[in-house]
Design brief:
Strand order of the largest sheet: 2-1-3-4-5
Bound molecules: calcium ion
Distance between the termini: 22 Å
Helix content: 40-55%
Shape: globular
Mean pLDDT: 91
Length: 233
């Protein structure tokens, strides 16, 4: 029995039914909400493990719902956006959403996102909340105290910027980080959003980290959005 409780926030009945039927089939527990105010109420009274949130709601803007929930909760939020809402999706991630699904999505995509987020939840309950000084993911190990990263126990020779980038991704494992979030956290907000430089640093980091840089195992690219560190078994 899957004990994960999911709050499904979607005003479109057909999509809500598709999601809840999928959840039922895969033994997830769920609650539903049809608008933003219901979502906030359900989230505060039932404390779900994961929130699936449609951004286009009839009453409150989805991004506003995220801001309110984030003021008291770290519950992972996966936003559901229409293709025309690309900027909304990025704004949602910048305001604390963890991941996104773009409509129309398949049942497989939905389940894949839930698996990634469930792994992130498991990590949040262990590594991050236990405030461990060492991060381990597959063959990658980052010793935050020593300021060193290792792959298969061999030290990675990273520049200070590459190391900062790697730590940011590790500390947010499972979350999609936007370009803006990454540049602000690595270089500070004064740094002009220089995507070309970020791509160069990411490419050199990957060359050192990934055995097959063309099919990366650790750092996933989200074209037009940002990057994510994946949990590797
Ligand atoms: Ca909608």
């Amino acid at each position: 029995m899957n004990k994960t409780l999911i709050l499904v926030v979607e005003d479109d009945l057909a999509i809500r039914n598709l999601i809840t039927t999928t959840l039922k089939t895969h033994d997830y527990k769920f609650l539903t909400a049809q608008n933003g105010s219901e979502a906030i109420m359900e989230a505060s009274s039932h404390n779900p493990d994961i929130i699936l949130l449609d951004l286009g709601l009839p009453d409150i803007d989805g991004v506003e719902v995220i801001k309110q929930i984030r003021s008291w909760s770290n519950t992972p939020i996966i936003v559901i956006s229409a293709r025309s809402e690309d900027t909304d999706k990025i704004e949602a991630l910048d305001n604390g959403a963890d991941d996104y699904l773009t409509k129309p999505f398949s049942v497989e995509e939905l389940l894949a996102r839930l698996r990634v987020t469930t792994r992130r939840l498991a990590m949040m309950q262990t590594d991050i909340f236990a405030n461990q000084s060492v991060f381990i993911n597959g063959k990658l190990k980052v010793d935050y105290v020593a300021g060193c990263a290792y792959l298969c126990d061999d030290e990675l020779h990273l520049t200070p910027t590459e190391y900062k980038l790697l730590c940011l991704l590790c500390k947010n494992v499972g979350r999609v980080l936007t370009y803006t979030y990454i540049t602000e956290n690595v270089w500070g907000s004064n740094w002009n959003n220089d995507l070309a430089s970020l791509r160069v640093f990411m490419a050199t980091l990957r060359k050192k980290l990934e055995s097959l840089p063309d099919s990366p195992q650790y750092i996933q690219t989200h074209i037009g959005v940002g990057y994510r560190m994946l949990r590797v078994e």
